[in-house]
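tokens incoming
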């Protein structure tokens, strides 16, 4: 399972593997949904990276603006982006929904030329 730098992990991501301290003690179990408090604790403990489950394990994108630029490369991508943006506006600001929104947008982007 590829590892993602902790600084690239967003709140709401799900761990694919447990996080252990240097002594082998369990810090966070696999399957745990990461909160801002858990991420802050892992940073304080010097954990450099984690293995994530599902779409959140994809290469990180800086923000939704970067995804929009990728999507708008083609007329089809622009139409998809506008439809998804309307739909996503109803999802609110829940961090778990932000992760889901990013995964949906990644999935629906047209392939790179």
């Amino acid at each position: 399972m590829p590892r993602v730098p902790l600084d690239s992990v967003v709140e709401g991501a799900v761990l694919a593997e447990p996080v252990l301290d240097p002594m082998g003690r369990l810090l966070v179990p696999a399957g745990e949904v990461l909160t801002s408090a858990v991420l802050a604790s892992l940073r304080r403990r010097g954990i450099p990276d984690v293995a994530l489950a599902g779409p959140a394990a994809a290469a990180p994108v800086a923000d939704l603006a970067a995804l929009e630029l990728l999507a708008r490369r083609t007329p089809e991508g622009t139409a998809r982006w506008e439809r998804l943006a309307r739909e996503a506006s109803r999802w609110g600001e829940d961090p778990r929904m932000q992760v889901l929104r990013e995964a949906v947008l990644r999935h629906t982007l047209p392939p790179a030329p």
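note: The chain has two domains: 3-57, 64-108.
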